[in-house]
Amino acid sequence: MAEPFSVRVDVRGYETDTQGHVNQAVYLQYAEHARWSLLRAAGIAQTDLLDKGVGPVALENTVRYRSELRAGDETTVSCAFVWGGGKTFRIEQAVTKADGTVAATFTSVGGLMDLKERRLVADPRECFRALASDPSLLGL
């Protein structure tokens, strides 16, 4: 199996809390950054989604913090779509330090919302496949 898509993220000092480690909300921003980076790498810009009248929505996020991150740490944030049937999909992610230590893992449930109808589209796979220049990066 191929390695999941990943993007490098360096921890910035202003992302840390009073204990000197990354604030919990920042981990979610890292995950979101990796998801948008994956979509762009697959050839899908945010404007492409808006032009089609859809937008990704997060329905559930589970974060497991495993090792603290500090300012200056170099990390990679992975991102892999896991497809099933229906209107939703899972996204599996990990934040990994340069030494290989996993700092956090994410399991998310998402969907694509029809922005006019305000409902999830019936088949998000087809929508992503139609927009992507490289759908294989999305597991399609």
TrEMBL record:
SUPFAM superfamilies: Thioesterase/thiol ester dehydrase-isomerase. Gene3D superfamilies: Hotdog Thioesterase. It comes from the Bacteria. Pfam families: 4HBT_2. One of its GO terms (molecular function) is fatty acyl-CoA hydrolase activity. This is Thioesterase. It comes from Streptomyces alfalfae. The lineage of its organism: Bacteria, Bacillati, Actinomycetota, Actinomycetes, Kitasatosporales.
